Amino acid sequence: MELQVTNLDGTSAGSIELKDDVFGLEVRPDILHRMVRYQQLKAMAGTHDVKNRSEGAATGKKFKKQKGGGARHGDRKAPQFRGGGRAFGPTPRSHAIDLPKKVRVLALKHALSSKAKSGSLIVIDSVAQTEAKTAALRTTFGKLAWANALIIDGATVDQNFALAARNIPHIDVLPIQGINVVSILKRDKLVLTKAALEALEARFA
């Protein structure tokens, strides 16, 4: 698959050949769904907690005789009493599920292929900036029609570009190590630098 390479000023910077086994797959929504669920569940904190009847502050003394009138209760920390512990309440736990590494790798390829197939994949020569100017970069994005985009750079993102882009709404900037399925699907356009493409080719080699 051949794709045109552009510069930030909109001029052409030649073309590049993309691998069909990474960017030309027939997209499978079921694999993307599994990966999105995997990422979202792994990101959940799982810190929800309530006090059960063993953690309450009330006394543990049996407050009424077993016989001689009245219900046969134990202590006041039972769930039916005001101030008692909660029955079957949530406790801290991990929500993460397992997903084979091969499936996770395949899901990333399908996410990249989905952007390529829909014409939402853009390859740019470089995002390096001489100064960190948000207003100027917002104007540049407006000319390129990048209103909602994920921009992936190489191992390190140009500092001036990262500073200028971080206050622009609906624009995400990540190094190649941070590329993930949820971030790709979240934005309308996927912008890859040449450095990012080289890193991806090495990753999938």
TrEMBL record:
<comment type="similarity">
    <text>Belongs to the universal ribosomal protein uL4 family.</text>
</comment>
<protein>
    <recommendedName>
        <fullName>Large ribosomal subunit protein uL4</fullName>
    </recommendedName>
</protein>
<comment type="subunit">
    <text>Part of the 50S ribosomal subunit.</text>
</comment>
<keyword id="KW-0694">RNA-binding</keyword>
<keyword id="KW-0699">rRNA-binding</keyword>
<keyword id="KW-0687">Ribonucleoprotein</keyword>
<dbReference type="GO" id="GO:0006412">
    <property type="term" value="P:translation"/>
</dbReference>
<dbReference type="GO" id="GO:0003735">
    <property type="term" value="F:structural constituent of ribosome"/>
</dbReference>
<comment type="function">
    <text>Forms part of the polypeptide exit tunnel.</text>
</comment>
<dbReference type="GO" id="GO:0019843">
    <property type="term" value="F:rRNA binding"/>
</dbReference>
<dbReference type="GO" id="GO:0005840">
    <property type="term" value="C:ribosome"/>
</dbReference>
<dbReference type="InterPro" id="IPR013005">
    <property type="entry name" value="Ribosomal_uL4-like"/>
</dbReference>
<dbReference type="InterPro" id="IPR002136">
    <property type="entry name" value="Ribosomal_uL4"/>
</dbReference>
<keyword id="KW-0689">Ribosomal protein</keyword>
<comment type="function">
    <text>One of the primary rRNA binding proteins, this protein initially binds near the 5'-end of the 23S rRNA. It is important during the early stages of 50S assembly. It makes multiple contacts with different domains of the 23S rRNA in the assembled 50S subunit and ribosome.</text>
</comment>
<dbReference type="InterPro" id="IPR023574">
    <property type="entry name" value="Ribosomal_uL4_dom_sf"/>
</dbReference>
<dbReference type="GO" id="GO:1990904">
    <property type="term" value="C:ribonucleoprotein complex"/>
</dbReference>
<dbReference type="Pfam" id="PF00573">
    <property type="entry name" value="Ribosomal_L4"/>
</dbReference>
<feature type="region of interest" description="Disordered">
    <location>
        <begin position="47"/>
        <end position="93"/>
    </location>
</feature>
